[in-house]
Amino acid sequence: MWRPSLSGNISGTDPLKDNRLLLKAEALDDSHEARNTAAVVNELSKEITKILVSHPVNARRVAEGKNIANVVLLRGCGIRIEVTPFLGKHGLWPCMVAPTKIIAGLGLSLGIDILDAPGATGDYRTLLTSKASTIAKALSAPLQSSPKVFVPGEDELKAGRPDGYDFGFLHIKAIDDAGHDKASILKVKALEAVDTAVGQLARLLWETESSGKYQFFLCVTGDHSTPVEYGDHSFESVPFTMCRLKDFVGAIGESTIRQISLDPFPIPNVKSGKDLLDDLETKERRDKHCQPYSGDSVYELNEVAAARGCLGRFPGGEMMGIIKKFLSLDAETA
């Protein structure tokens, strides 16, 4: 939150490369607020290092001959922007699970409730099952039996949602991390883990929907590409898919959905020297058991395949409009 004499217009302390010195925050304009904020951040960094160096955990690491954690990297400074809340703009009561704080910060700026998922982190060690179950529980709280797009009044915006949520956002960071780390095998493993988590989410939501009081929709997409060859964000279009949960269950098979294990699982460790081809199916093997269910001919979620989809290409700013149109059309035909 913005405070007097502070500014978001400063540089970060993260050198963005290993084995480089911590940077000093610098004011990016000549204002008193920017200079003051940079000075506060630099002093904070010094105090953090003092505390960490003498921390008992680091004392044990030194005794074990391990490197110590002696800095906190600060980057992406900003202020909470003043925008129309998600509820007011889209007419859907939103919640999100996003341990990555920059994503959670965006959610807070939009008035989205941030849910706590025990064991969920913004890295490879995250418990995806916890994320899936937290979102499923929030969306399964009592609410209207059919999708409903509405624009609430000011009093409703202030009062909050007493009986559950209409929209849940689940963010997963590990795949992006693998791209930054140029870790091809780990990226594949992270994608496979997300596949499993989507299955768990589908099972949990289907158990609720099959009671006859709910109807859910799934949407899977990303915010950007992070190719392992480049190790950073790039400009490619990202895949986008959405469907009614009952159609997803119909494509997979209800018996298959109900047999999906809800046991927590980690993203598998990758052994050094492991060949990526050891675990990858060939296109021929995939084609034997993969086929489009409905809508168009696409049955893979990747940049190239999705470009052939019936939605074509569209800018990110149109995404929520497309989602709400899909909900409205389904409600009209129900």
Can you describe what's shown?
The chain is built from 13 helices and five strands. Mean pLDDT is 84; it is low at 143-160. It is mainly alpha-helical and 334 residues long. The protein folds into two domains: 1-79, no CATH class; 86-333, Alkaline Phosphatase, subunit A (3-Layer(aba) Sandwich). A three-stranded parallel β-sheet has the order 2-1-3, with helices on both faces. A two-stranded antiparallel sheet has the order 4-5. It is globular and about 60 Å long.
CATH architecture of the largest domain: 3-Layer(aba) Sandwich
Helix content: 40-55%
Count of structural domains? 2
- How many strands, which pairing sense, and closed or not: the largest β-sheet? 3 strands, parallel
What is the CATH level 1 assignment of the largest domain? Alpha Beta
Biggest sheet strand line-up = 2-1-3
Q: Going by CATH, what is the homologous superfamily of the largest domain?
A: Alkaline Phosphatase, subunit A
CATH topology of the largest domain: Alkaline Phosphatase, subunit A
The beta-strand count equals 5
Pick out the low-confidence regions. Answer: 143-160
Catalytic activity: (2R)-2-phosphoglycerate = (2R)-3-phosphoglycerate
Family: Belongs to the BPG-independent phosphoglycerate mutase family. A-PGAM subfamily.
Protein name: Metalloenzyme domain-containing protein
GO biological process, one term: glycolytic process
